[in-house]
Design the sequence.
């Protein structure tokens, strides 16, 4: 099977996935539904605001069907919040990328609407910053929308969701913990050896649901490595660390690193700080060469 990587990809445009990996990912992702505040006697109805041609979008559909739920499909291809379908079908669960989830705060058609039918909002793909999570959660609370918001993490190369951070953790700054069947560890990016507890390194992921490789792209060898334990690991472009409780934290992506005065600067860390101010809705950090000011 060949799927598009989506907007958060590291490289290439598509990934090759075995059907067994897609089904395995669906069973793993289905574990999240146990955290959804939905009456067990009711049939689970899920609306995904992610294109089905993307790895994450296809995984959501598969997980819904395997767990016996109902997937609400609609005939649009753009990755945005499907407001019309949301208000018409009133799903129990909504899944979305972080950028799409933020549209709950900006979409004018939702002003004054009762969205109490949404029991759980899963925000997946790349990690939603802690400050934006707090902002979205507070916005839901002010509007009387009582949905539980669960942040998840899973780069496209791992097919589905790998980690989740349930609200019960009360730790918005964390990525969370791995789902069952997922192994995650922090390695030195150069030597691919374990780093000491608390130190930054590459976030590396092993499961039976990782991609075979990028479609017609030689960079696969740089991303999937067989380590001394005999397992195949995805060496993600993200950096992180763990604490003594085994909780993982995000420390930025090597795809977005600025070298200023000999120091490595992660724009995402600065952006997260900027977005933490109440009067700032969004912000992006980039670098302009010194000549631009001359």
Sequence:
């Amino acid at each position: 099977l060949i799927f598009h990587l989506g907007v958060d990809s590291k490289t290439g445009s598509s990934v090759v996935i075995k059907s067994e990996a897609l089904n395995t990912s669906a069973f793993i992702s289905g574990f999240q539904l146990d955290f959804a505040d939905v009456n067990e006697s009711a049939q689970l109805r899920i609306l995904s605001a992610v294109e089905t041609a993307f790895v994450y979008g296809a995984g959501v559909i598969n997980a819904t069907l395997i767990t016996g739920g109902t997937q609400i499909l609609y005939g649009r291809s753009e990755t945005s919040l499907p407001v019309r379908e949301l208000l018409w079908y009133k799903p129990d669960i909504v899944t979305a990328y972080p950028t799409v989830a933020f549209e709950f705060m900006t979409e004018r058609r939702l002003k004054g609407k009762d969205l109490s039918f949404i029991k759980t909002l899963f925000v997946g793909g790349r990690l939603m910053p802690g400050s934006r999570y707090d902002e979205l959660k507070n916005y839901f609370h002010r509007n009387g929308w009582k949905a539980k918001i669960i942040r998840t993490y899973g780069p496209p190369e791992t097919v589905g969701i790998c980690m989740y951070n349930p609200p019960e953790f009360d730790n918005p700054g964390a990525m969370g913990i791995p789902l069952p069947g997922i192994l995650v560890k922090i390695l030195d990016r150069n030597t691919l050896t374990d780093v000491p507890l608390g130190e930054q390194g590459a976030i590396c992921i092993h499961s039976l649901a990782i991609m075979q490789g990028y479609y017609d792209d030689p960079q696969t060898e740089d991303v999937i490595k067989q380590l001394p334990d005999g397992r195949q690991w995805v060496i993600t472009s993200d950096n992180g660390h763990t604490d003594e409780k085994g909780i993982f934290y995000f420390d930025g992506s090597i795809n977005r690193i600025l070298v200023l005065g000999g120091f490595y600067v992660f724009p995402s860390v600065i952006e997260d700080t900027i977005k933490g101010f109440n009067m700032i809705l969004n912000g992006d950090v980039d670098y302009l060469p010194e000549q631009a000011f001359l």
Observations:
- The mean pLDDT is 81.
